[in-house]
User: What shape does this take?
Amino acid sequence: MSEVLVVTSGKGGVGKTTTTAALGAALAQAGKKVVVVDFDVGLRNLDLIMGAERRVVFDLINVVQGHAKLAQALIKDKRLEGLSLLPASQTRDKDALTEKGVEKVIKELKEQFDWVICDSPAGIERGAILAMRHADSAVIVTNPEVSSVRDSDRIIGMLDAKTVRAEKGEAVDKHVLVARYDPARAARSEMLAIDDILDILSVPLLGIIPESGDVLKASNVGMPVTLAAPEGAPSAAYRDAAQRLCGKPVPMTIPGDRRTLFGRLFARKAA
Amino acid sequence: MFFKFKRRGTAPVARERLKVMLAHERAVIGQSDLVAVLRQEILCVIGRHVTVAPDKVKVSTDRGDTISTLTVDIEIPAPVVVTKAA
Assistant: This one.
C-alpha cells in the first residue's frame, strides 16, 4: 500500500528539505520504493540537497501541465536503488501548480512508489496547502524555539482543515520531528525541552534530530545526511524515525541522555 | 546539582509565552473552523430532506467593524424542485 507523506513546518529554515532527503533515503535503504517531491516552485532546493541539480530536465510543473511524462521528469538516485526525485520548477510561476494537476500526479506516483514524500514550501500559502492536500500522514519539523513552535501549531490546524482527508472527516496522521535539538542547552533550560514542545503541540513525537555539523557537510556535497554520515547521531535519529513511520516501535532516545554526569558538567562549563 | 536552580534558564519563559499566545491564537483562528463545522452540520440537516452534493453547500463569514455576516449558499438539484411543483 502506498502512503503520501508531507514534510511541513510553516516556518522556513527549520530542516524540511534535509528531513525529506534523509527520511527518503532511510526508507529507500530499508527497501522501500520512495519518491521525494519538491513543491517549492521558484525556490527549489531538494535537487541540490540530493545532489541531482545537474540532472534536472523536466519538473513537476511540466508534468502537471502535460508537457512531459512523469517518467521523463523522475530522476533516479544513483546511490540508492528505489529512491527517486521529482524536482520543482525553478523558473515557472508558482500559480502553474493546479489542484487538479497535483491530484493527478500524486495518483500516478502512488501507483509506482511505496512512499510519496512531499517537501512543502515554507509559509501557509497555496504551495504549502497543495503539498499537504493529498497527505495520509504529516511530519511537522519543529525547532526548539518559540517562532518555530508557533508556526507548527498553525500548520497543524491547517492539516486538520485543508487536506482531502480532513474534508472527508478523516484525520491526517501527524508526527512532530524536533530538529536542531541541543541536549546541553536543553539541560541548562536555555532551550525548550522536548516535553514542553509535545505538551504545547499535542502531536506525537517521531524523532529528535540533534544539532550537528553532519547536516551542513552533507548538504555541501549533495547527499542525504543518512548517506553522507551514516555513523553520525542525526543519521541514527533519522533511521529510527523512518522505522517508526513504517509502524515499527523503536525506543525513543533523547540525544545526550546517555552522557555521564561528568560529561554533562563538562558540557555546561564549556558552552 | 544545586546550581541548576540558581541558574534558571529562559526556556520556562518561552514555554509560558507560547502557551498564552497559542491559547489566544487558537481561539481566533478557530473561527475559520466554525465555517467547516457549520457546513458539515447544515449538510446533514439538508441531507435529511433533499439530496445535496457536498460541494454545493457554501458557507462563508465576513467580519466587519460592527457586525459580522454569515452567508450560506445551498444549491439544490433541479429534479427536486420539479417534483415539488408537480
Remarks:
- The interface with chain B takes residues 145-146, 149-150, 153-154, 157, 160-161, 169, 186, 188-193, 196, 200 of chain A (CB under 8 Å).
- Residues 61 and 89 of chain A are 6 Å apart (CA to CA).
- The beta strands of chain A are 3-8, 34-38, 75-76, 83-86, 115-119, 137-142, 173-181, 205-210.
